[in-house]
Amino acid sequence: MQATDNVTLDNCADEPIHIPGSIQPHGALLAFDIDGALQAWSDNAPQLLDLTLALGAPLASLPLPAEVHAIAAECRDLIEDGEAPAIALEVAIGTHQFDCIVHAYAARIIIEFELREVPSDAVAAFALKAHAAIDRFKRQKSIDSLLQLATEQVRAITGFDRVMAYRFHQDDSGDVTAESLRDELEPYLGRRYPASDIPAQARRLYIINTLRLIADINYRPSPLVGRAGAAPLDLSHSVLRSVSPVHIEYLQNMGVGASMSVSIVVNGRLWGLLACHHMTALQVPYSIRMAADVMAQVIASIVQSIEARERALMAEQSAAVRTRVMETLLHHDEPARALLQHAPALCLSLQAEALVVAQYGKLMVHGDIDLALAERMVASLPQSGDEIIERSALGDWPEELRDALAPWAGMLALRFDPSTSGWLLALRREQINTIRWAGRPDKIVRVGPLGPRLTPRGSFDEWRETVRGRAVPWDATARLAAGQLLGEMHRASVARHVETDRARS
Ligand code: BLA
Asked: Which residue ranges does the record assign to the Phytochrome chromophore attachment site domain (predicted)?
């Protein structure tokens, strides 16, 4: 059942992380078919649970505490299409105290026994803290303040040394936008990581299963035993799932002893993660993890409403700019100059960092752009054809311009008055030039067998390679703002031409 052999840096996204064939050994696992016949178990189960196990043994016949049988029966009743959500309770077996978590997935009933060291009254206090934290989340007005508070509160209830809010960009790269950490640790705030640090299959899994814990990075996996030759046991929703060895090396290189991450899923998309590190092993009890998971869900819904508000505000601002531009254009002899008057607001509305306006062969710029380069950019535009021309990467520009373009890479060009060669260019810098690398980039904690790629520095270099020569691509919001602006400008230019003609006649 071992599915993690031969994993390298090149085939990372192909690793079937949902069927690792083993679990983390801070607990034990039993898997049954829908009829309750034992199909697989972790190698450590007989000893940890004080059981004798045999393939096909009926669940009902196993000498497990009555409450375990009760939630297993409840789980069986809930099964639909081979799946049932998790039910959990505390049990004692021999001298051990466990959180017992039962769920069904892919036509298997999976019972996990997670060793618990923290007494339940201590855990109850954390649930209250989580409740208070959620009240405070709801009062946050900005995503930044929400995420900052989230990192502090998750750290307070879980005890991790470092909690980061990791936010994804459109291209699935991400950066640490908020952080709460122990004083002596080096901050990771502001750091950028490539999409490949969390490969596609992991992202997919993290949307359907929103929390994962690696309690001890140096664990020795307990292999699953049981039905040889059968389909490997799908651990997508298991709490003890053994983790990709590549990711383990990554964390070891960073000097991390335990890791937990909680997904922030907004509109069905993995929007961000709360990523937690501990320098030594740390087994956060199940109910505290669930409290963190609930926090992440509340955060997701607040993010969703803040983003909706921001989008509405942005649309409002863009409309206001358009109206002002329109008014100025109608009363101004030189449209280009009129546009430039509103340059800061236009930059905001198009999310651009500089503007170039050209008309009647004359040129004006707003922002830190070289005039000669701006001239060459305008000259590179076609005489006729599309009204909006979009470039996001060096490769989109004519070859002769590419060497001269730095630090610019993205352009949205609007042909606002074809008869006078009127162009408005919104420009974006290469992403490399817009990112601040916080912390000490050259500090590599350790390097394991797969080399320096699996270190913060290696990750950042990888990200830089992936986005070399690329600006942040123009998204739907910027395109919409550009299209609407162009529409208004056309109307203004028609109105002006009509007026000029009337004046002449
Ligand atoms: C998983 N990678 C992850 C996870 C995180 C990161 C948060 C989720 C698992 C967890 O909770 O620990 C990445 N962690 C980060 C980043 C920071 C951090 C960016 O703390 C920044 C501070 N990883 C690589 C490369 C590969 C890779 C090169 O860097 C593959 C070639 C693989 N990462 C990888 C895999 C998983 C993963 C396979 C899934 C692990 C699992 O759930 O089994």
From this structure: 142-297
Q: Is the CB–ligand 1 distance for residue 193 below 6 Å?
A: yes
Query: How far is Cα 307 from Cα 157, in angstroms, rounded to an integer?
Result: 27
Report whether CATH 2.60.40.10 matches the domain 331-430+469-504.
no
Tokens 């189960």 label which residue?
45
Is there a cis peptide before residue 407, judged by omega within 30 degrees of 0? yes
Q: Give the span between the Cα atoms of 223 and 395, in whole angstroms.
A: 49
Quote the CA–CA distance of 486 and 480 in Å, as a whole number.
10
pLDDT value of residue 208: 96
Average pLDDT value for the chain:
91
Does the CB atom of residue 209 touch ligand 1 within 6 A? Answer: no
Domains 12-307 and 331-430+469-504 share a fold: yes
Q: Give residue 247 CA to ligand 1 midpoint distance, Å.
A: 5
3-state SS of 422-491 is EEEEEEEEEHHHHCCCCCCCCCCCCCCCCCHHHCHHHHHHHHHHHHCCEECCCCHHHHHHHHHHHHHHHH
pLDDT in tens, 302-323: 999 999 999 899 899 999 999 9
| Distance from the alpha carbon of residue 462 to the mean position of ligand 1, in angstroms | 14
Contact 421, 360 (CB under 8 A): yes
Task: Give distance in angstroms: CA of 118 to centre of ligand 1.
Answer: 28
Q: In angstroms, rounded to a whole number, what is the distance separating the alpha carbons of residues 499 and 505? A: 10
pLDDT at position 2 is: 43
pLDDT, position 444: 66
Which SS3 state, helix, strand or coil, does residue 163 take?
Answer: strand
Residues in the chain where the model's pLDDT stays below 50: 1-4
Distance CA 325, CA 321 (A): 6
For 12-307, give the CATH class. Answer: alpha beta
Report which protein residue has its CA nearest ligand 1's atom 5: 198
pLDDT of residue 3: 45
Q: In the chain, where are the structural domains located?
A: 12-307, 331-430+469-504
pLDDT of residue 443: 66
Tokens 């609930």 sit on residue: 294
485 token code pair: 């602006």
3-class SS at 189?
coil
Closest C-alpha residue for ligand 1 atom 2: 198
Q: Above pLDDT 90, what percent of the chain?
A: 72
